[in-house]
Amino acid sequence: MPFALIRHGLPGAKRPARHLPAPAALKGSYDVVIIGGGGHGLAIAYNLARFHGVTRVAVLEKGYLGGGNTARNTAVIRSNYVTPASVRFYAESVRLYESLSNELGFNIMFSQRGQLTLAHTDAAMRGLRLRAAANQLSGVDSVMIDPAEVARLVPTLNLEPVKRYPVMGGLWHRPGGIARHDAVAWAYARRAAERQVEIHQRTEVTAIDVAGGRVTGVKTSRGDVQCGVVVQCVSGHSSIVASMAGVELPIVTYPLQAMVTQPLKPFLDPLVSSPQFHVYVSQTPRGEVVIGGGSDPYPLYAARASLEMKEGLAEHTVELFPCLAQAKILRQWAGITDMTPDYSPIMGKSPIEGYILDAGWGTWGFKATPICGRTIAELVATGRTPELIEPFSLDRFSTFKLVNEMGATAASH
Predict the structure, then answer these.
(1) Distance (Å, rounded) from C-alpha 94 to C-alpha 77?
(2) What is the pLDDT of residue 8?
(3) Which of the residues 15, 71, 196, 234 has the least number of beta carbons within 10 Å of its own beta carbon?
């Protein structure tokens, strides 16, 4: 092994191919500028190039690729929502995830283990029955199960009836799963770059040029760029970036924290969540136990972790899984989430012509990456809003046609 490594350092040694082209100068104009180099921005760029032949595209990322919320989420993928519009939208995203490794030629480590949402009260059981019915009407595989079936699926779960919140049943969503978040971002980036899309890291957008009600370009830390279309995909900074174009968004940004334990022997196959305890738990292929919960109770633009949240997550996790009482916390982190009043995203055209919104994802952005890339790219290329995302337009807040998903979170926010 040491000699093999030394060989690669000798003159004339063949170097491995770059995943992305070497950094290049920023051009003065593009057809499309995408602000944000996370999963969504890269997916939109890839779909524009592959399916619509739009290659004069620049993805501008102020940090590094996938370094925002794409790197800070807990990688859950599911479609067991409440409203028909959301169920159909996320179900299509799950379908695309199922073949994404083959499409991109890159192993994203997608694993469908099923997702179990626990109910601890009669009211919670009624709410989950409603979700199960809504899912089934849209063709999504979600069913109610009793405590005996819960025990069969998750034998390590604490099902003692004497505890303060006994498990009364659950919503079993078989298509639920996880994927490797950074692999998704890099796979899209690599295939987009192969189709001549330019990806510029450490390039911050500082202003958006608008003239006569239409976007004309952007100003960046590396110079000005003219373009006909701008797409913003900046997660927790959505309202700040949109304000540069004069667009006001009904979004409030909150930190969302998570943590992970040391690697343990496999003991948990499904993803388990409890809205009552404000916690959800899954185990990675490496054996780490990923633990997430509700967002912080106050707005903040800071991705910092807190002792209070760590203690709360640990307490509730141990109540569900007493076997984790002695597990050591390996690391803790936070992202910043852009929450809308109805807990659903904002996708589509803005009041500024040529300025496209991909915002308001809150805690659900990663699971929508493939379908958001597909639909927003279609909108940019054709000028027509795909039917699948029409319910999520910005004007629903003025027409009061809300897509209320407050009850569909794996852990309440």
Answers:
(1) 7
(2) 64
(3) 15
Q: Which helix (H) or strand (E) holds 142?
A: strand 142-145
Residues of the chain with pLDDT under 50: none
CA distance 341 to 119: 25
- φ, ψ dihedrals at 277, nearest 5°: -90, -5
What are the structure tokens assigned to 39, written together? 């999963």
Q: What is the pLDDT of residues 96-116, one digit of tens each?
A: 999 999 999 999 999 999 999
- Model pTM score: 0.94
* Residue 167 token pair: 């498990």
Q: Decide yes or no: CATH 3.50.50.60 for domain 24-112+176-250+341-413.
A: yes
- In 3-state terms, what secondary structure has residue 49? helix
What is the residue extent of each domain of the chain? 24-112+176-250+341-413, 113-175+253-339
Q: Name residue, tokens 């079993």.
A: 172
pLDDT, position 126: 95
Superfamily for domain range 113-175+253-339? D-Amino Acid Oxidase, subunit A, domain 2 (3.30.9.10)
How far from 241 is each of 77, 215, 238, 246, 319, CA to CA, in Å? 27, 13, 5, 9, 41
